[in-house]
Amino acid sequence: MTLRIVATGGTFDKHYDELAGELTFAETHLHAIVKRARITVATQIEVLPLLDSLDMGEADRQGVLGRCRAAAETSIVVIHGTDTMRETAHLLGAATDLTREGKRVVLTGAMVPYEVTGSDALFNLGFACAAAQIALPGIYVAMNAVLFSWDEVRKNRTIGRFEVDRAA
Q1: Each residue of 133-167: pLDDT tens digit?
Q2: What is the edge-to-edge ordering of all strands in the sheet holding 146-149?
Q3: What angle, 0 to 180 degrees and rounded to 10, lies between the N-to-C axes of helices 58-70 and 85-94?
Q4: Which end of the chain, N or C, is less surrounded by CB atoms within 10 Å?
Q5: Whole-structure pTM value
Q6: Is the pLDDT confidence value at 22 over 80?
Q7: Which domains does the chain have, with CATH numbers?
Q8: CA pair distance 115, 1, nearest whole angstrom
Q9: Which of the four pLDDT bands, split at 50, 70 and 90, describes residue 21?
Q10: Which of the 8 DSSP states describes residue 109?
């Protein structure tokens, strides 16, 4: 089995620029994280343009869908910014061909960048990788040890975590 990990950016991959005092993008942390987490399943890492999810447009989301469709692997993890993760999950969930093809696509991210002490990035990636291997075919969001269906999740900005969307 091979696991495909698609990086799109988000807080997960932000770097702290000490000179500017800002969080910016340079290159993905995924190679180092996979090594540090000792993920032993074969992985293919694909890096799309790294963006804050608030800067993602429809073309960027369609690009994620295209990469998931083109992937030979059936286990796919998408690293994504948390602010619009739900929107991308909904686009992927509406693409019923992914599930029909037996693909398990798990979106994950981080509330705190990998480089920053106390980050949830390492754990969330490991959890998402496990979920992508054992979940039934479908589209999921994996955050902080909870696996959500794409159509029943929302980010609660007040408490800073994902939860079941009761309105779904």
Answers
A1: 999 999 999 999 999 999 999 999 999 899 998 77
A2: 42-51, 2-9, 75-79, 104-108, 138-143, 146-149
A3: 50
A4: N
A5: 0.94
A6: no
A7: 2-164 (3.40.50.1170)
A8: 29
A9: confident
A10: -
Which letter does DSSP use for residue 137 in this model? Answer: S
Looking up tokens 């994504």 gives 80
Residue appearing with tokens 């988000």: 10
3-state secondary structure (DSSP) of residue 26: coil
CA angle 134, 140, 144 (to 5 degrees): 85
- Looking at 6-120, list the stretches that DSSP marks H as alpha helix, in order from N- to C-terminal side: 30-36, 58-70, 85-94, 96-100
Q: Write the burial class of residue 43 (CB in 10 Å: 0-12 exposed, 13-18 middle, 19+ buried).
A: middle
DSSP structure class, residue 53: G
* Contacts of range 98-102, beta carbons closer than 8 Å, 24 or more positions apart: 98/68, 98/69, 98/137, 98/139, 99/137, 99/138, 99/139, 100/137, 101/74, 101/137, 102/74, 102/137
